[in-house]
Amino acid sequence: MRVPSLRILVYTGKGGVGKTSVSVATALKCAERGLRTIVISTDSAHSLSDSVDMEVGPSIRRIAENVDGLEIDILKELEENWNEIRKYIFTFFTSQGMDEISAKEMAIFPGMEFIASLFYLERFYVNDEYDVVVVDTAPTADTLRLLSFPDVADWYFQHFYGVMKNFVRVARMTVGRVISFPIPSDEAMHEFEKFNLRIKNVRELLTNPEITSVRLVTNPEKMVISETMRAYTYLSLYNLNVEALIVNRVYDANADSASPLKLREQKQHLEMITDVFSPLKILYAHQFTLEVVGRESIMKLADELFSDSDPSALFSRENPMKIISKGGSTIIRLKVPFTGTAGLELYNTRDAIIVSIGQYRRTIALPLGLYGREVASAEVADGVLSIKFREEANAGRKGKRIHRRKDKGDS
Ligand SMILES: Nc1ncnc2c1ncn2[C@@H]1O[C@H](COP(=O)(O)OP(=O)(O)OP(=O)(O)O)[C@@H](O)[C@H]1O
Ligand SMILES: [Mg+2]
């Protein structure tokens, strides 16, 4: 890939914290600085139009000087991009006796709704259409699925696609005599291959800390902070560079609407935020009296957040995962903020390490040099998981559980 110039800024957080408002504020401010900007919404309950107070919609359209907007319509994108694959999956299931309606449902596989958004990112990068892409997302859980999709899909394709290719080769040789279901057409295979490659590209874009930054949006409230902490852990697990935290809706000490009790509570929460998230870059915006809607009030929010600085500047370029060689041994280091050894589960196969935290799991493909190596030790210290490998490979070794979560009733 060429030297990166695109910046992808992904805002994520709990429902209602201000993701859309902050995304639009960032986009307008970038555009004001002359950067070619687009703000895209991946939330199917789009609110970009409400925020900018004009119709945005499912085709790219200009919303102000230097800035475009797009509310991604999943069904429209699927219709346009995935016909061949869907046709094949549909034919496959109907040939197996499934009714047409169920077969149509099966042709939308889990995670497919994310592909459209992810492929837009790839398209913007390849075509050099923008300097900054601001991504306004759905509340946390969906966004985690969106951002982890390339990781999961890549693993799936490596295994599934190899099998399918062999199957097609054999099926072509036996031409329908033994095989009772349809062979995917050349077009479908070509689509699968294209898909595979694009997913790999998207994954590279998302995990390149110079290009993609994830910014957490939070409010100074206990439950929101807890969810933000969890999101930080999971995003790091997927090797995404979380490089800033936006604390939105901070009541001002002289605001009429905030009671002394509310202000005292908020003070504690703000202290907690600086304590737990430090050294992450933190930006603040106060609670406005009225909703933040329309250019004027959004620009006020943007000024509070960024003042005269560039909102697309990188606050940190650190990748959560690093592979280090030290004195002959190799160590994988993975940032897992707020997690202790007891909170995770590790499994080691010949070519991968599988790490599970909460309901999230990541398969870390090992570099060739680490194939077949056994894990000598794995521990978490200061929010960083270190997995140390033995120096010698053990060729015939099977998968092995390295560490089991302590909350499972066994130790
Ligand atoms: N600092 C603020 N002061 C006052 N109102 C705000 C502030 N930030 C956001 N709002 C208002 O709060 C509401 C929710 O904000 P917004 O839509 O940006 O949140 P969101 O995180 O995108 O929500 P959702 O999860 O539903 O997508 C909107 O009406 C918005 O105008
Ligand atoms: Mg929103």
Write the layout of secondary structure elements.
Blueprint lengths: L6 E6 L6 H14 L4 E5 L6 H5 L8 E4 L2 E5 L2 H8 L1 H13 L4 H7 L5 H16 L4 E5 L3 H35 L11 H21 L5 E7 L3 H16 L4 E9 L9 H18 L3 E6 L8 H12 L14 E6 L2 E7 L8 E5 L3 E6 L2 E6 L7 E9 L2 E10 L6 E4 L8
Parallel strand pairs: 1-5, 1-6, 2-4, 2-5, 6-7, 7-8
Antiparallel strand pairs: 3-4, 9-10, 10-15, 11-12, 11-16, 12-13, 14-15
Helix pairs in contact: 1-11, 3-6, 4-5, 4-8, 6-8, 7-8, 7-9
The structure holds adenosine-5'-triphosphate and magnesium ion.
The site of adenosine-5'-triphosphate has 18 residues, from helix 1 and strand 7.
Helical content (DSSP H or I, runs of 4+): 40-55%
Q: Could you tell me how far the N terminus lies from the C terminus, measured between alpha carbons in angstroms?
A: 46 Å
Series of secondary-structure elements, N-terminal to C-terminal? EHEHEEHHHHEHHEHEHEHEEEEEEEE
Largest sheet: 8 strands, mixed
Bound molecules: adenosine-5'-triphosphate, magnesium ion
Query: Rounded to an integer, what's the Rg over CA atoms?
Result: 24 Å
Give the strand content. Answer: 15-25%
Content-based structural category: alpha/beta
What's the level 1 CATH class of the largest domain? Alpha Beta
What's the CATH superfamily of the largest domain, by name?
P-loop containing nucleotide triphosphate hydrolases
**Can you tell me the number of structural domains?**
2
